[in-house]
Amino acid sequence: MKKSMGLILQGGGALGAFEFGAVAALLEDGWHPTAVTGVSIGAINAASIAGAKGGDITASLNGIWEAITLPTLPWLPANKQSDLSLLGNPNFWQSRLDVWNMRNWNSYCTTGPMLQTLASHLDFGQLNDPQHIRIGVTATSLYTGGLTTFSNHTGEGAHPDGGHHKSVRAQLTPSHIVASGSLPPGFPATRIDGTDYWDGGLFSNTPIDALLNLLEPDEIDSLPIFVVDLFPTDGQSSPANLREVQTRALALQYQNRFWTEYGGSAGLDGFLAMLDKLESVTAGTPVEGTPAFEWLMRRRALKNLHVIASGPAAEGGDHDFSEAGIRARYQAGRAAAQRYLARMTPRRTLRAA
Question: Locate the PNPLA domain: which residues (predicted)?
Answer without folding.
Answer: 7-212
